[in-house]
Every structure is written in structure tokens, then in C-alpha cells.
Amino acid sequence: MPSLAPAVAEVRRAVRLALAPLIAEPVVVGLSGGADSLALTAASAFEAAKLGIRVVAVIVDHGLQDGSDAVAARAAQQAAALGVEGIVRRVHVDARHPDGPEAAARDARRGALAAVAREQGANAVLLGQTLDDQAETVLLGLARGSGAASLQGMAAVSADASGLQWVRPLLGVRRETTRAFCAASDLPVWDDPHNLDDRYARVRARRRVLPVLEAELGPGIAEALARTAEQLREDAEAFDEMIHETIEDIVEHAEAGISVSAAALAANPAALRNRVIRLVVDSEFGVGLTRTQTLEVARLATDWSGQGPIDLPGCTATRAGGRIVFAARQR
Length: 331
Prior knowledge:
This protein is α/β, with parallel strands linked by helices and 331 residues long. The chain contains 12 helices and 11 strands.
């Protein structure tokens, strides 16, 4: 009996650990035909069969390239060869998306995966992001300077508002390992031309920045970035518990919106104070504050000298007596 290739064993183990907590219902796997998603689909088919879990592969055709329908059809055929039902969904990618084409494609893809999950009665969607994807996400977050939240990267498991779980079994697996898996399993891989297009920041980070960091600082940069994300996520979970406990004591609903005790905000450490401000505004008005905006609001508590209302996205912040009142902006 031939020995199992190390890459196959590593990917299967990662998938087995991810599938173990799931109940015996169908799971949806996102399949593009690339090495990461193909290795994930093949390993899921193998491991799910032992657990009595049905796997449905969803191939999303974004329609952004000539021949995308043929690529999707081939991926569906590969799914069938692996003993997995393949469903192709054509989506519309909004060219006017405020966050650009990558975000537009991601939102369209996520919507299609969620829709199939609902149709199939699945409670989980498996995605093929790897450790390299995690490292790129952290690096891009660092470049944006958008704080610890963006440096946390992607969660291995998260749930949306409907309760659907988004599971990333391969966040601890290198991209080269998924390619080795496909080679060992004789699975032809499709390489997305967009992954070579330097117009995209993620592609530049992958092809230019990370290799330079590895060359100049030594190997292990991707693993270090991924570890950083994991540690920050653990810290954030603990911090979130503290924030919610704090909010219960210092936040009140006001006639025009919501208010926070200025004295209580001022008494808390800056990190906690700023997180409370951002969470209150996000929860009440659905908008995110920049660091500059957050600090301006914090000054209403820590450096009050009679300054007037602060205009924020979708709302205003005003010092009224001993409280800071956040109110919807009048249209």
C-alpha cells in the first residue's frame, strides 16, 4: 500500500478537525478550480464521507473573464469526479461597489454561497483561504493603518446574522501545500489570471512585498503574520467582553439616539474608551469611525472646553451636561 503524501495528509487533517464539530448536515464548499479550493473540496469529500456529511461544491461564475463559463463547468466536472455534487451559479458583480472590484466580487460570491447553503439545508460554508491569504490580509491591514481589528485577519470560524457558519479549515496550511496536494492527487489546477494582475493590492503584496520581506528579514514572515492575527483575535475576544460589560453601565438610549457618560469614558483607559465609542456608533448607526474621528469624540470626555457638535458619518456627537449624545444627522 503506497504511503500517503505529506501534503495530502496535512490538508485532510485540517479539514477533519474543521468538520468534527459540525452536525451531520450538508456542508457547502466554495470551489473555483484553483489549488486551494480544489484541495479543500477533495479533502472534504474524503473526510465527510466517513462522518456521514454530504458535501455540495458551489462554483461561482463571476462572468469577469472570457471563458469563465467553461472554467466553471470544468470545476463542476472535477467535483463530480470527486463524488461531490457541483452547482454552478452565475452572479452579477457590481462595478460601482464603493470598495472596488475585489470587494464587489467577494460580496457577490458570498451571496451565492449563502443562497445555496439555504437551499441545501447546510449550516456551514467551507472556504479555501490559506495561511498565505491570512498573511496577505494582515499585511494589507497594516498598510492601511486601520488598527487591531484589521490585523486580526480572517477568523477560522465565524457566523453571520442568519447563523450560517463560515469555516476556513486551511488557515494553518501553506499555499504550496495545497498545490502539492493537487499534484499528488492528480488534480489539474486552474490558475486565475486575476492572481497575476498587479492592479490589485493583494496581488502586489503576494508577488512583490512578501518575497522581499522573506529575502531581507529571513524565512517565516507569512507564519509570523498569521500568528500575529491569531494573537490579536484572542486579545480582541477578551476585550470585547470588557467593552460590553462597560457599555451596559455607561450607555443610555436618548430621545434622538444614544448617550454615553462622559465621566465614565474619561475614567477608562484610552484603548477601552476608543473601542466603546466606535462600537456605540457602529451598533447604533451602522458606520465605522476613523481613528481621527474617534479621538475627536473622545476629547468631548477627556478635554472638554465647550467645543460644539462633531459631524460624523451618519450622526453627530455632542456634549450635553455630563453625557455625550450621539444623534442621527438631520437630512
